[in-house]
Amino acid sequence: MTKSAKIYGLIALWFLILLFAITISLFVGSTGVTWKIDNQLDWTIFYKLRIPRTLLALIAGMGLVISGQIYQTILNNPLADSFTLGLASGATFGSALAVFIGVSVWFVPLFSIFFSLLTLIVIVFITETMVKTFHVATMILSGIFIGAFFNSALYILLLLKPDKVNSMVSYMFGSVSSAEKLTVEITGGVTLICILILFGMSHFIKMIQLGDDKAITLGVNVRLISWCCLLIAAIMTAVIISFTGIIGFIGMIVPQVVRRVYKVPISIQMILNLLIGGSLLLIADTVGRVILSPIQIPVGIVLSIIAIPIMMYLMITEQRKKENH
């Protein structure tokens, strides 16, 4: 079997897994709909609840994983993600602030997006001011410090208005249970546009992987391409987080596993990340809905339980690999 045939077979396999994940998400859950839909109530639940929830989980999984891949590739750091860069903390604080001041529910996502992008701008400014060049370590450290600052500010908000604790805290664990048609349309539209742009830039991203010097000799404006990719990934992440809350680890774990297990070009990695990310989030959300039914566990908690052992394993194997070399 040729290499191309193996790649196509691999993509087909994960596409089938994704279809399976979509199916179980649509027909399995705690709201009463099973494989048989034979009355008006079931149809209402199916169209008003299950379809939007499934689509939002699919969009969130794909968007968060592809953005994680971009962060890790551009910054050349397997730990780079919206969380280590502080963007998720900024988005969380923005949403909590909106709840704190009592704005309309539809303005909460705007606060989240604003503070997430503001965090990126602050990190870029700090990095540029400190080292006058593109320095990965400084950027990651700046993100961790900014994230800690927003977490502290969030705790102050909780102390000032303890009656808002439930609203603020529930947003921090990540969930797709509040999905609606408009939510899906906004996140789906923004995510699709961002993914298409990133695929169009995959050739330049591949050259940046060769190293800055080689990329520059090939005519690539490394600085411009890098910041454009980071900005696109940040926008996509901010929009998703603004509607789903903080869904951790998936954007950090999946790209690492794909890169280690499948030695394929960057564009194929992106396709696999989309398929695996969407499948994983759909399955995690379904598990959260049914395992303690009728209690629903937020998908962010389910993913954390799954991802933390995997993260520990990756860290241990990475350390052993370095020692062997």
TrEMBL record:
Main location: membrane
The keyword Lipid metabolism belongs to this UniProt entry's keyword annotation: no
Topology in membrane: Multi-pass membrane protein
Keywords, comma-separated and alphabetical: Cell membrane, Membrane, Transmembrane, Transmembrane helix, Transport
Keyword Transmembrane helix: yes
Residue stretches spanning the membrane: 12-33, 54-71, 83-103, 110-127, 139-161, 182-204, 224-254, 266-283, 295-316
InterPro entries: ABC_BtuC-like (IPR037294), ABC_transptr_permease_BtuC (IPR000522)
Pfam assignment, any one: FecCD
Record localization: Cell membrane
Family: Belongs to the binding-protein-dependent transport system permease family. FecCD subfamily.
Protein name: Iron ABC transporter permease
